[in-house]
Amino acid sequence: MAGAQVVWQAELRMFSQFRGTPETWNKLIAPLPGAHVLQTWEWAQVKSRHGWQLLPLVWQGRNGETLAAAMALMRSVRLAGRETGLRVFYVPKGPLLDWQDGGLRRQVLSDLAEQARRKRAIFVKIDADVPVGFGFAGQEGSADAALGLAVQAELGESGWRLSEEQIQFRNTLTLDLSKDEEMLLAQMKQKTRYNIRLAERKGVRVRVAEVDETGLLYRIYAETAHRDGFVIREGAYYEALWRLFFKNRLAEALIAEAEGKPLAALVIFHFAGRAWYMHGMSTQAQREKMPNYLLQWEAIRRLKRLGIETYDLWGAPDEFNESDPMWGVFRFKEGLGGQVVRHIGAWDLPLRPMLYRLYTHILPRLLDVMRRRGIERTRHLVG
After folding, report:
1. Which of 192, 251, 257, 369 could bridge across to 269 with cysteines, CB 3.0–4.6 Å?
2. What is the pLDDT of residues 158-182, one digit of tens each?
3. How many CB atoms lie within 10 A of CB 34?
4. What band does 127 get if pLDDT is binned at 50, 70 and 90?
């Protein structure tokens, strides 16, 4: 470890802000371990339209090879409508690097902290996809991941804190799409296979959505949010996000229909051999035809044809018990035969401790207000 650290001290000149094109950025990060759609230029571009500033960072080796990258997002902190000159600094699902390289990960985290200090950030937040375990913790068949546990311990010893605001899901389920279709069906729960066949018998058909159907998708999504009691953003946000990713072939939407009427839909993002099921939606109509099950099966088949190897079902409960509000959705995803993956979660490095404590006490209250307003806005939209 010490030797690696000495090497990196000699290579600091290779750390820089990225100056290339959006296409170059995506090509640069795609081969890195843990490459994630939330680290793409397109995701950052959408965020830049909603108050975030972009700071793409690159770490290169002696021969110019890319060893790590981070699309950092910065947002100004305002009080009473006024600029404070302070910022928050967030690397969604990053930084991207080989986390087994202790010298590299320490250097990257150190450089991120230094960049954040220069930008007058209150804290740095990271939430890289580093597993700490697989399966339900403490139950038969579960297993810990030594690397993730070591990273958590190292972060805690270095002043980082497990964040109280886990922006992205800490846990998820993944499907290995390298298996053939028969094996994928066989590993599903019997009820899931039955409901797929039921939807087909009931006349449900799945098609790819057109780019100009983002308005339809949002209306169904808003209906779902109202019915299930979760908060979504305004329509303009999702329509811009979906259109951009559809246009750049980094996402597609599937719509399940019966008798010419849309019953359910999903939006799947894909990048660097992985796919993410981020947005699912359904109407109240003809739910007995089980359109969501056929949607997922057709999504799996399409992703395989695209050469996708891993399908991330995007989200599992923090605590695996029936009291968790995600339990019903989790059971549906579990029926598809996915493996539970537990990650290190989001970690914060307070750079201004007093302001950090103030910010983290105020932010949850603001988020509660925003959630209530969001639920009310959605109710008016579908009411």
Report:
1. 251
2. 999 999 989 999 999 999 999 999 9
3. 18
4. very high
